Amino acid sequence: xxxxxxxxxxxxxxxxxxxxxxxxxxxxxxxxxxxxxxxxxxxxxxxxxxxxxxxxxxxxxxxxxxxxxxxxxxxxxxxxxxxxxxxxxxxxxxxxxxxxxxxxxxxxxxxxxxxxxxxxxxxxxxxxxxxxxxxxxxxxxxxxxxxxxxxxxxxxxxxxxxxxxxxxxxxxxxxxxxxxxxxxxxxxxxxxxxxxxxxxxxxxxxxxxxxxxxxxxxxxxxxxxxxxxxxxxxxxxxxxxxxxxxxxxxxxxxxxxxxxxxxxxxxxxxxxxxxxxxxxxxxxxxxxxxxxxxxxxxxxxxxxxxxxxxxxxxxxxxxxxxxxxxxxxxxxxxxxxxxxxxxxxxxxxxxxxxxxxxxxxxxxxxxxxxxxxxxxxxxxxxxxxxxxxxxxxxxxxxxxxxxxxxxxxxxxxxxxxxxxxxxxxxxxxxxxxxxxxxxxxxxxxxxxxxxxxxxxxxxxxxxxxxxxxxxxxxxxxxxxxxxxxxxxxxxxxxxxxxxxxxxxxxxxxxxxxxxxxxxxxxxxxxxxxxxxxxxxxxxxxxxxxxxxxxxxxxxxxxxxxxxxxxxxxxxxxxxxxxxxxxxxxxxxxxxxxx
Length: 594
Ligand SMILES: Nc1ncnc2c1ncn2[C@@H]1O[C@H](COP(=O)(O)OP(=O)(O)OP(=O)(O)O)[C@@H](O)[C@H]1O
Hints:
Pfam family, one: ABC_tran
Domain ABC transporter: 356-589
Organism: Cellulomonas gelida
CATH class of the largest domain: Mainly Alpha
CATH architecture of the largest domain: Up-down Bundle
InterPro entries: AAA+_ATPase, ABC1_TM_dom, ABC1_TM_sf, ABC_transporter-like_ATP-bd, ABC_transporter-like_CS, P-loop_NTPase, Type_1_exporter
Protein name: ABC transporter
Distance between the termini: 24 Å
Bound molecules: adenosine-5'-triphosphate
Strand order of the largest sheet: 6-7-8-3-9-10
């Protein structure tokens, strides 16, 4: 089932973006929230830097006036140098704090996202593409950093300089200020219009990068299949098509961004020309001194700089909102709840002798057809049960339902006599061990894999490996339990992977063990040992095996025969050979005999 699921996931169309609301600046602040103290310090430093910057034209003006009046300039040049150095140091500290704030916000966004992703309902993860989800954690959170570092906090600080410059210009010549400001406002209005488009395009870009991530992920995860099928060229072309798509959308963004730059430089030039022309006329008519005009022009620089920074920030925030919308799409999906509800007392007393009871259980994936159809059976504590049936009968789905990866659409599942809906998912899973059909090992060491659920000493790990006949894997490398198993456990054989998963499940000492026997790793060599192992496991707990070996099936206390989601027969091997045509057929054609 795992392979099927994987194929479905990578081939599924991209999730609809419109399904979620668009992010706002408040969402951006939500991530900065934890760093609020820093933002206060940054703003304070911004104000101090603005003061040192604003003092410079005033000092230059004073020096010019003294030169014009044939007076000595005295210490003015040294004061100017000191102010410049001071401004530089303050701005350096501010810069570091801005980066720190941004990194904090990125961390907060990533934490939220990762914590949420790992708690999404399994059905939700089935529907999405892994590569795209990974891109949201890496790429989309990065744009939050860009928005903050490319001047969001910095430009709020720049507002101080802008306001100070405007006040100084107002005092020098209100008419000149009016002209300069009018030109600047027109430019800002044009740029703001362009940035709306930028937000839309960059959302498209993040999406295209997400698709590229998922295509690459798909190709790398199935690299063996792709090579063996001689499909490297085709798969490369698939990924390259995504690269090209991202490039095209990137060009759209480039076009829009490119518009911003000439717009602001034209506005700056027009502004300076207007101030120079009008200012020259004001000097000629005796309304302004040359020193005042020089001061005014220096202040104009100080006005334009933060203004262009603010414009840049609007663009970066636009991009960030695109990324935040994609982050929000994931955060808005409800997490898997613990699913424990207080149910009305049914009147029936739970029978603790019954390890597992299914009462009219039905299930379907999404809006698909019924995969389990009114399943009813009871398994007594300590029994060894085999589930058999043709491929697609719903055997793996049945195990998924018991361990609450999915909830049935109707009916009741009782584990240890209690309705599972009355217990949290964690409580149910603590008592039930589950070994999937193609159980992938987790990238990491043997020890990481064994101690995933519960801590275990080295001796316990070794015993668990010995129990599942895996001690030779331990002897293979001098690293012992610290030997790496590779991505998805590629350094182990399929059979070894499943036995490692079994060892992990056994270490958690479950009262019920669900084992989805692998169809692909059946070999005569291990046959006796596997039978031995299953005998040993079933001595300690209730065992439900989705079985593909006749030897696993024949000794079972009960065999459940499933067909198209329904339980069509149950009994022992001998009983079923007499009573069930499907079982006879399965025993003859599908169950492997060594
Ligand atoms: N995650 C999923 N989403 C949608 N449909 C699914 C999903 N998993 C399984 N199915 C469908 O449910 C049906 C039952 O699948 P299931 O894996 O339970 O069968 P099975 O009896 O275990 O088969 P096999 O013996 O081949 O492993 C199949 O038609 C399958 O396509």
